[in-house]
Design brief:
The complex is a heterodimer of chains A (about 400) and B (about 260). Helices cover about 45% and strands about 20% of the residues of chain A. Chain A is an alpha/beta fold and about 400 residues long. Chain A has 16 helices and 14 strands. Chain B has about 260 residues and is of the alpha/beta class. Chain B is about 45% helix and about 15% strand. Chain B has 12 helices and 9 strands. Chain B has a 9-stranded parallel beta sheet, with helices on both faces. The two termini of chain B are about 30 Å apart. In chain B, about 60% of the residues are buried. The chains are: A alpha/beta (about 400), B alpha/beta (about 260). Chains A and B meet through helix 1, helix 8 and strand 11 of A and helix 3, helix 5 and strand 6 of B.
Chain lengths: ~400, ~260
């Protein structure tokens, strides 16, 4: 290569990051996607929009979230671990960053309603929250299986004035919720914005959602330098579609930091997938030899997705980020360890990243390695499920 | 010009409104008998759905049909094997999602389809902007690439799509996925938008589920496509005779309109 590559910049005109991305949607959704791209480009170049975005995240979303040094876990693992506390953002995860951006954009486009898909319910709750704040009507599609696993989040969305529609097709999880939201969008595209929850889907979603989430990485970079830590050796985040990882990677993509995305072993699109087209994007997908998409299986509803955002597929391809997989069995002990040592109960999704640290400390992570962990969400929503699992073990 | 378009233009010149039913390949063991019944009853071309696990523009009926077909082990290769035994005398059109073709290899998939006389292909999640490779794989094998125009498509895009589509332009009558309501669509406006910029045959689908709706559509289009209304009957166990009667009910009103 002649010049050093700049990572996590704009995609090309077709919405591609390297070979991945693009816009593979039915003609009925093309116009909406093209309009959204124009609206986002204009808004993101408009100082008034950008400052409103930051203002809302500050006064409503709880930003900036702190960086906490995890001293006891660090001692336990022989590492130096810092956590970016997205669990302290409003609604309990990083999801608020994206939905604040997209709902402001919805208003700006003159639309009055949002629809969203949700897996664990975090994005659904965040969308319902941001919609309530702006007086937008909100419908959330959620796999029937997930409505059972995350019943409290269903109720929370309803409290916030949203309608939750259980999706009974296919595997009844996140993948099918996305299908259903896309289908619904076809019939209401005139007055409704599809508030997609991750760095996936057709262009401009992967880019737009990463831009809204990049506030995580920019804040963390500034905070670590104020703390005198500088660039950490490793930045690690869990990956389903990959929005929290994209957000924190964006702050360190052009540094020497090693970027690590942790997928659930039952939904590890990079490790076990192959290139394909699903949900409007070309990316890495878990599929059979005939191109049929397979069902992901994970203890955590938020990582139960057979694909991954196209920019992650590109970062893996370009060897800029590394993607690893953690099995269900390692997740609960990680959640317990972080809870007991640090007084932070993480979401099951986030616990995958913690489990990777536990596994690699003293192995690929030499003693004293500095690590920035994106603590993407809090575990309140998972407590009942974790209790059942632990009871089953005893 | 593709042989499909030559055939369909001849139909139009002869004053015949085309009827195009849709079948999900491999949904039942005797699915080919259904296709034959449709051809015998006067279908002018037949769409053959190749099942995909995540059909984005299809409603619950086609999705269920796809699930059944996949459970029966249906693949591109198995469909091609089945179709090799079929001789119905009307053009067959493949309808599927891009990942199925991509995974089979675009050149290889196009070759396999062409080999069993599939003369057209509809890939609804492949917009013109992304379809150069697929279109070129089809072009060398006389497989027409058919594109959709939706009610939401602005004028400039209608022009681009109408120039690019081969065989016919698929005018989507309603802003909805397939088979979700019985409401009649706004196919007239979509068809008119295409006709304003092109003389390619215009067929209306998504929003035509009954002979009455087909009769209403006949004056403003060159053909109608019926998918979910037929597949729903097949999911409920319709026989080849039922298919024949179904097709005839459309044939009758479409022919009457022309007299």
């Amino acid at each position: 290569m002649n010049s050093p590559e700049v990572f996590m910049d704009k995609p090309d005109a077709s919405g591609r990051f390297g070979d991945f991305g693009g816009r593979f949607v039915p003609e009925a959704l093309m116009t909406a996607c093209l309009e959204l791209e124009t609206a986002f480009r204009e808004a993101w170049a408009d100082d008034a929009f950008v400052s409103e975005f930051h203002e809302v995240l500050h006064t409503f979303g709880g930003r900036p979230t702190p960086v906490t040094e995890l001293s006891r876990l660090s001692r336990h693992l022989g590492l130096r671990i810092f956590a970016k506390r997205e669990d302290l953002a409003h609604t309990g995860s990083h999801k608020i960053n994206n939905v604040v951006g997209q709902t402001l954009l919805t208003k700006r486009m003159g639309k009055s309603r949002v629809i969203a898909e949700t897996g664990a319910g975090q994005h659904g709750v965040a969308t319902a929250t941001a919609a309530a704040r702006l007086g937008l009507s909100c419908t959330v599609y959620m796999g029937e299986l997930d409505t059972q696993r995350q019943a409290l989040n269903v109720f929370r969305m309803e409290l916030l004035g949203a309608t939750v529609v259980p999706v009974t097709s296919g595997s009844r999880t996140l993948k099918d919720a996305v299908n259903e939201a896309m289908r619904e969008w076809v019939s209401c595209v005139e007055d409704t914005h599809y508030c997609l929850g991750s760095v996936m889907g057709p262009h401009p979603f992967p880019w737009m959602v990463r831009e809204f989430q990049s506030i995580i990485g920019r804040e963390a970079s500034r905070q670590l330098s104020e703390m005198g830590v500088g660039t950490p050796d490793v930045v690690v985040a869990c990956v389903g579609g990959g929005s929290n990882a994209a957000g924190i990677f964006a702050g360190f993509a052009n540094t020497d930091a090693r970027l690590v995305g942790v997928e659930a072993a039952g939904g590890a699109a990079i490790a076990t997938g192959s290139p394909g087209v699903l949900h409007g994007m070309r990316s890495m997908l878990i599929q059979d030899e005939f191109g049929q998409i397979e069902e992901a299986h994970s203890i955590s509803a938020g990582l139960d997705y057979p694909g991954i955002g196209p920019e992650h597929a590109f970062l893996a391809d370009a060897h800029r980020a590394h993607y690893v997989a953690i099995g269900d069995d390692d997740v609960i002990p990680a959640l317990q360890l972080l809870s007991e040592l640090e007084g932070i109960v993480p979401a099951l999704e986030t616990a995958h990243a913690v489990a990777w640290l536990i596994r690699e400390a003293g192995n690929s992570l030499a003693p004293g390695t500095s690590v920035l962990l994106n603590l993407s969400g809090r575990g309140d929503k998972d407590v009942a499920q974790v209790r059942e699992i632990l009871r089953g073990q005893s | 010009m593709t042989s499909l378009e030559v055939t369909l233009r001849k139909l139009r010149e002869g004053g015949r409104r085309a009827f195009v039913p849709y079948f999900m390949a491999g949904m039942t063991g005797d699915w080919l008998r259904h296709v034959e019944a449709a051809a015998n009853a006067g279908a002018d071309a037949i769409e053959i759905g190749l099942p995909f696990s995540d059909p984005m523009i299809d409603g619950v009926i086609i999705q269920q049909a796809a699930e059944r077909a996949l459970e029966r082990g249906t693949t591109l290769a198995s469909v091609v094997r089945d179709l090799a035994t079929l001789d119905v005398g009307v053009p067959l059109l493949a309808m599927t999602y891009y990942n199925v073709l991509l995974h089979g290899g675009l050149e290889r998939s196009a070759a396999m389809l062409a080999q069993v006389n599939v003369r057209g292909a509809i890939v609804p999640d492949l917009p013109p902007e992304e379809s150069d490779e697929w279109a070129s794989a089809c072009a060398s094998r006389d497989v027409a690439t058919i594109y959709l125009v939706a009610p939401s498509t602005p004028k400039e895009r209608v022009t681009v799509i109408a120039q690019r589509t081969q065989g016919y332009c698929y005018a989507q009558g309603r802003m909805a996925v397939t088979g979700t309501t019985s409401e009649e669509g706004n196919g007239a406006a979509v068809a008119a938008a295409v006709r304003a910029v092109s003389d390619v045959p215009v067929y209306v689908g998504i929003g035509v589920s009954t002979p009455e709706q087909a009769a209403n559509a006949a004056p403003y289009c060159d053909g109608v496509i019926v998918g979910s209304a037929l597949v729903r009957r097949l999911l409920d166990g319709a026989t080849p005779e039922d298919v024949e009667n179904f097709v005839k009910s459309f044939r009758t009103v479409l022919d009457a309109k022309n007299n």
